[in-house]
What we know:
The chain is 66% helix and 9% strand. It is mostly helical. It has 2 domains: 3-203, Alpha-lytic protease prodomain-like (Up-down Bundle); 209-302, Cation efflux protein, cytoplasmic domain (Alpha-Beta Plaits, 2-Layer Sandwich), CATH 3.30.70.1350. A hairpin with a 2-residue loop joins β1 and β2. The termini are far apart. Residues 207-285 form the Cation efflux protein cytoplasmic domain. This is Ferrous-iron efflux pump FieF. GO terms for molecular function: cadmium ion transmembrane transporter activity; ferrous iron transmembrane transporter activity; zinc efflux antiporter activity.
Amino acid sequence: MDARVKAARVSIFSNTALVLGKLIIGYGIHSVSVMSEAIHSGLDLVAAFIAYFSVRVASKPADAEHQYGHGKVENISGTLEALLIFLAAIWIIYEAVKRLLAGSHPVRGALTGVAVMAGASLVNYMVSNFLFRVARTTESIALEADAWHLRTDVYTSVGVLLGLLALEVTGYYWLDPLMALVVAAMIIKAAYSLSREAFLPLLDVSLPEEEERIIKEIIARHADAYVEFHKLRTRKAGRERQIDLHLVVPRYQHIDYVHDLCEHISDEIKASLPHTDILIHAEPCTSVRDCPVCNNCPEKEKRPSGAK
């Protein structure tokens, strides 16, 4: 089974347990911040299901209908997860403001909520670390989005925990909905970052500058075997990178040599940037001036007399 699918299952199981625990405790102690965390985890659970189904589809090989593979399913998944986070933040803000305007509303058993938040933080931290590791290894945007969901949950759970502790010490019940607003602000920030990372590849933006630098450096290693290259284009769909370029080669060079050159360049790029599909269009040098690369080509001497 694909490692991405296994990781997504772990996320589903952990989020299910956390949603139930937070809902039960939050309702029992009348804490809007704990309830907001339950809703946050509920959307995390929905996101985990989305991630699970997206990585299953994305792991399918290219077919006649999807000749470039199914990688963009992961980007769609990440975008949907970001929208869910925004919705969670809006609901939390609504409930917190309503509680603030209604006046004091005693929170019973704040220390119970503290214990639940501490346990939730620990579980989410461990699971998010696991998801981050798998996401980095498999370059899965869907799992990375799910990991960020849980890591945000860690931060917000700690925030709620501190708010409940302050409430227990001071008795100021408005601290509970105030902390819920802080949670909402953190969620919105995470949703914005995630939406950019997931959505932009759907518009076929270029690979990051660092990755394009690696590509150009690899091509440059073979500079003595070609004249120049141009029309380098890059994009990413899920974890799949797609690269194409035009490589100008000596006009006297044999086709077998050109083919091997393109294969060497492709293999070196794939070794540095896994999950990459490369198309190199080789074209002969048409320079009207004296081209040193063409003139130094060993195949030139084998050309028939008078051939261009």
